[in-house]
UniProtKB/TrEMBL annotation:
<dbReference type="InterPro" id="IPR036640">
    <property type="entry name" value="ABC1_TM_sf"/>
</dbReference>
<dbReference type="InterPro" id="IPR003439">
    <property type="entry name" value="ABC_transporter-like_ATP-bd"/>
</dbReference>
<dbReference type="InterPro" id="IPR003593">
    <property type="entry name" value="AAA+_ATPase"/>
</dbReference>
<dbReference type="GO" id="GO:0005524">
    <property type="term" value="F:ATP binding"/>
</dbReference>
<dbReference type="InterPro" id="IPR027417">
    <property type="entry name" value="P-loop_NTPase"/>
</dbReference>
<keyword id="KW-1133">Transmembrane helix</keyword>
<dbReference type="Pfam" id="PF00005">
    <property type="entry name" value="ABC_tran"/>
</dbReference>
<feature type="domain" description="ABC transmembrane type-1">
    <location>
        <begin position="53"/>
        <end position="337"/>
    </location>
</feature>
<feature type="transmembrane region" description="Helical">
    <location>
        <begin position="172"/>
        <end position="192"/>
    </location>
</feature>
<protein>
    <submittedName>
        <fullName>ABC transporter ATP-binding protein</fullName>
    </submittedName>
</protein>
<keyword id="KW-0547">Nucleotide-binding</keyword>
<feature type="transmembrane region" description="Helical">
    <location>
        <begin position="92"/>
        <end position="110"/>
    </location>
</feature>
<dbReference type="InterPro" id="IPR039421">
    <property type="entry name" value="Type_1_exporter"/>
</dbReference>
<keyword id="KW-0812">Transmembrane</keyword>
<dbReference type="Pfam" id="PF00664">
    <property type="entry name" value="ABC_membrane"/>
</dbReference>
<feature type="transmembrane region" description="Helical">
    <location>
        <begin position="279"/>
        <end position="300"/>
    </location>
</feature>
<feature type="transmembrane region" description="Helical">
    <location>
        <begin position="198"/>
        <end position="216"/>
    </location>
</feature>
Amino acid sequence: MNIPVEKAKPLKKPINERFVYQDDEVIDKPFNWVEFKRLLAYMKPYARQILPILLVMMILGTITKLTVPYLISLAIDKAIAPAWPALPSVKLLLLITGAVLLLYLIQWAANTYRIKFTNIIGQRVIYDLREDLFKHIQKLSFNFFDKRPAGSVLVRVTNDINSLQDLFTNGAVNVLIDCVQLLGIIVILLLINWKLGLAVVVTVPIMFLISTKLRVRIRRAWQEVRMKNSRINSHLNESIQGIRVTQAYTQEQENMAYFDDMNSSSKKSWDKASAMNQVFGPLIDITGGFGTLVLFWFGAHLIQTDQLTVGLLVAFANYVGNFWEPINRLGQMYNQLLVAMASSERIFEFMDEQPNIANKPGAKVLPPIRGDIQFEKVVFEYEKGRQALKGINLSVEAGQSIALVGHTGSGKSTIINLLSRFYDITSGRLTIDGHDVRDVTVESLRSQISIVLQDTFIFSGTIRDNIRFGRLDATDEEIEAAAKAVNAHEFIVQLPDGYETEVEERGGMLSMGQRQLLSFARALLANPRILILDEATASIDTETELKIQEALQVLLEGRTSFMVAHRLSTIRNADHIVVLDHGAIQESGNHEQLMKKHGIYRGLVEAQFRFL
Ligand SMILES: Nc1ncnc2c1ncn2[C@@H]1O[C@H](COP(=O)(O)OP(=O)(O)OP(=O)(O)O)[C@@H](O)[C@H]1O
């Protein structure tokens, strides 16, 4: 019988290949002393105040902890077993019990304060680190962000700093305590009975080896879990940001399948890691049990041969019980340290990144400018060998309005990026009032230029705060005056709380036009000599456009302005229209002059007219 063979479906691109998320997790890193010292330097400012207290608490805690087993051995040998002739045994027992109680109390107090101060140091260090990192990232130039997805920057400020938090709040000080405790126990064991001490101490390296080896594997397994979770986060972030596009193209199923894939892979690695974790406990117990076996077997022999008392054997067992704890923790700490080192490496990598655009030594403060701008044979490359601007010559007088026109990718945004010195030109010269932009401080240059971008960025906060972003010391009256001047006041007062209305990040509740008017008010408040508008009127309705046109007149008044606009109707009144093509100026002049030329500009205007 012929069974019909189902025709193979054409292979779709596997969904796993659709989304590629960079793994921002370094699985294994050798210990790096230089970085470790750099990390410890963050503790320095607090070391003098807090470290001595910590040390005292640590020593107190350890001494009290290690004295208790010895007192118990005394109770057994001197009070319980044979009565001491000098003192009635009950009295001695009571005395010892009181002493033990007191010691426990001191130990409790010392530990409480130690934990409190460790947390204080840890939190302060993390606060400083996070602050330093954020401050530094804010200074980095555009080309740094061009190279990295926002998610990867975010992960370093959050996840990596958090993984250091563990090290500073629990780790660093506990290592010290554990080392002191371990050393103390070894000395006491050898003092009580060196033979038995040696027999027990020999098991330590075995225990340490098992603990470290196994923990390395467990750590890797958990790192894999973290890596997979981090991918889920990236996908989640992308999915939420792009939810409108996903729904518009009905890609929910595909997205779900991909998410499912990642989710189950994360679950699998979690199962694996947790299974390994479960092996660890019993294994340590078995080794510990083996140590105890040696202790009692050899201890019993020593008691029989009168080399040890019962009380001392109990004390021994007690010390040995306290012995595994620090060893176990030290192994754990070592792993934690390696993870923290990987994180700190990534953090310091960012901190060492130098902003490309920095004040050169001896840079002057740009005095208040008039607004004359000169581009002299300006060449610019984002990437070496690929010229985005090919020798631009442009002379702009103070107060003139310049419109930049051209096909997509012709270099319009690049020109305005260079004006604010977001990038440095590759060759040529760019001057403002005769000052080369590279010779003046970045702050003094940018404070005299305002930029209004097409995708106006609205920060979460009130409407008032968002306008005030233009000049932080502006009064409420100045803010409202600016809003009135650009026709924004009218819509603001209609909002539920007027100027105090809280807008979500990116201004989701405002329309495009409203966002634009807000950013005009922000720019007007800053009162810059040079104003840059990037496609400011691209996507709004005619009525809002009229309002924006009016606002623009107010905004442009008396300033040098650069306007990038795709709607050519909005730039008809510009003093000078510059037509760019493939990074070079092809035509320039005012609207009438360019229309007469029958060149690119006229072509663009006619094309738009036909389209309308
Ligand atoms: N950050 C960047 N890194 C590398 N190349 C870039 C970068 N930004 C722009 N370019 C390239 O530089 C050229 C000019 O881009 P620019 O953004 O100035 O064009 P534009 O005229 O403003 O285009 P549009 O009208 O589409 O905004 C393009 O070829 C673009 O691919």
